Amino acid sequence: MSEIISLTIDDKQVEVEKGTTILEAARKANIDIPTLCFLKEINEIGDCRMCLVEVEGRRGFVTSCIQKAEEGMIVKTNTPSIIEARKMVLDLILSNHQRDCLTCVRNGNCELQKLAEEFGVTGIKYNGKVQSHEIDEKSASIVRNFNKCVLCRRCVATCKNVQGIGAIACINRGFESCISTVGEKSLADVNCVLCGQCIESCPVGALTEKDSTEEVWNALRNEDKYVVVQTAPAVRVALGEEFGMDIGTNVTGKMVTALKRLGFDKVFDTNTGADFTIMEEGTEFIERLNNGGVLPMITSCSPGWINYCEKNYPDQLAHLSSCKSPHMMFGAIIKSYFAEKNNIDPSKIYVVSVMPCVAKKYEITRDNMAGAGYPDVDAVITTRELARMIKQARIDFTSLEDETFDNPMGEATGAGAIFGTTGGVMEAALRTVAEVVTGEKLEKLDFNDVRGKEGIKKATIQLAGKEVKVAVASGLSNAKIIMDEVRAGTADYQFVEIMACPGGCVMGGGQPIHSSKERAIIDIRKKRADALYTADEKSTIRKSHENPILQKIYKEYIGEAGGHKAHELLHTTFNKQEKYKEM
Question: Could you tell me which CATH class the domain 4-78 is placed in?
Fold first, then answer.
C-alpha cells in the first residue's frame, strides 16, 4: 500500500501519495500552477520555470513540476514575489519570440498567449536581439517555424519518448540553442514519419500542419470542378471541440450540414471506404492464412506507420497488407464507379478528405495512388483546417441542424466507425473474417480483448477450429517492439494492427489541440473512442461485408474481393525509403 503524506498548499491541507510532485498535489487540491514546458509523463524537466513556487524554510524558488512533495511541507503558489518572477520568465520568453499573434494559426489556442493574458503582460521589458530562422515548409505535411519556438522541448520528448524516433533535438548552446534535425535538414529529409504528434504537443505555433484550405476554397470556387468531400470517423468525435463543445461529442449531423453549406457537391462517409478496406484486407488475410502466405499480416491504413516501416524495417515490407487506406480506396471508387454511374468526367472530380491525420497529406503524393487513372484524392485537410473553414464561412456550427451523408456512397457500418480508435481495424476485420471463414453468424460482435488504452494488446481468436493470434499496437515505440519480434522470427501472431498515433486516429496529429493541463486531467483518447464505440453499437449494420452499397459495387463493378479489378483500384505497393536524404 502506498504511503500517504500531508502537506499544506496555500493554507489548504492536501494528502497525496509519497512521490507525488508539488504540481500534481496542487492540481489535486484544485490549485492552479501555470506551466509551459510540462507535459505529463512525457516532458517533466522543469526548464521553463513558469511553475515556480515557494517552500517554507527553503531559499529561492522551487520548480513544482519536478519537486516531490514532502511530509509537512508548506507551499505558497501565488505570493507577489512568485507572480513577479513568473512575469519576468514570460518577458524573457517573449523577448525572443515572433509575436505575430493575429496571423498565427494558434491565435486563441496558444499556451504562451494565454499566460501573457493571464499575467497582464502588455509590453516587453527585455527587448534585444531576436533570432531569425528560415521556415521549413519542404515537408508535405508539417511546417516548422523555429521563430515561434519557446524551447520547451515538448516536441523533442514526444518524438523521442513516445514515438521512439528522435527526428528532432535541441542543438547548440545558450542564445544559439534551437530545435533542429540531423545536419539541420528539412523534416522531409530526415527520419520524421510525419505523424504530427509534435504538433499536438507544441504549446505555440512553432509546429503546424501544412495548410490546404486555400486549395480547397479554390476548388469550391471553380465551376468546372465537381467537388466531393469524405470525412474520417475520428473527425466527427473531435470537430465539436473546436467550437467549445465537450470532448468526444459526436457531431456527425452538424458536420455534414456544415460541409454542404460550404458548397461541396457531395458529402460522403469515409466509413464506407473503411468497409471496402475490411473486405480487401480480410480477404487477403484469409488467403495468406490458408495458403502459406507471409504472416503475420500487418495492416496498412496508417501512413505514418507505413513511413516508419519503409524507413526502419524495409526488410519486413512483405508483411504489410497491400491494401490502400480507406480514404484512398474510397477516392478511387468515387473517380471510377461513382463517376461512371453518374456520367461525370473523372478528370473534373476533385476529392477532398477530412482526416484526423497530417501524414495523409503526404500519403496522397505517394506512387501508385491513382487507381482510376487520376489521383485517388486531390487534397487532405485536418479536423482543425475544417474548423477554420467553417469559421471563415461564418457558420454557427453549434446551432446547425443535423443532416445525413449523401447516398448511396454515404452508407457505412459500425465496423467502419471504430476504425478511428486503436484496435478498431482489427475488431472490424475479425467480424468479417470470422463469418467468412466459418460461414456462421457471429453471436458476439465485440472483441473486447483488442480494445483499451494499452499500447500493445494481444488476443487469441478461434476461427473454424483454427487458433488465430492477433496483436494491436498504437504509437511507434510500441510498433518497434512488435516489429523487432517479427524481424527476429519470434512474433507469435498471424494478424497485427499498427497505428502510428498513440490511441489511434482519435489522437491523430490533425485533431484539436488541447493544453498540457487538459491533457493531464482529461482522458481525451477515451472520450473520443467511447463516442465511436457508441456509434458502432447504435448502427443498424455492424459488419462491413453486410454493407448493401459495398455489395452492390462489388457485384456491378469490382467483381470479387481480392480480384484483378480490386487490385487495380484498391491496392498499392511499398518500397524502402532512406532515413536521411541528401540535401
Answer: alpha beta
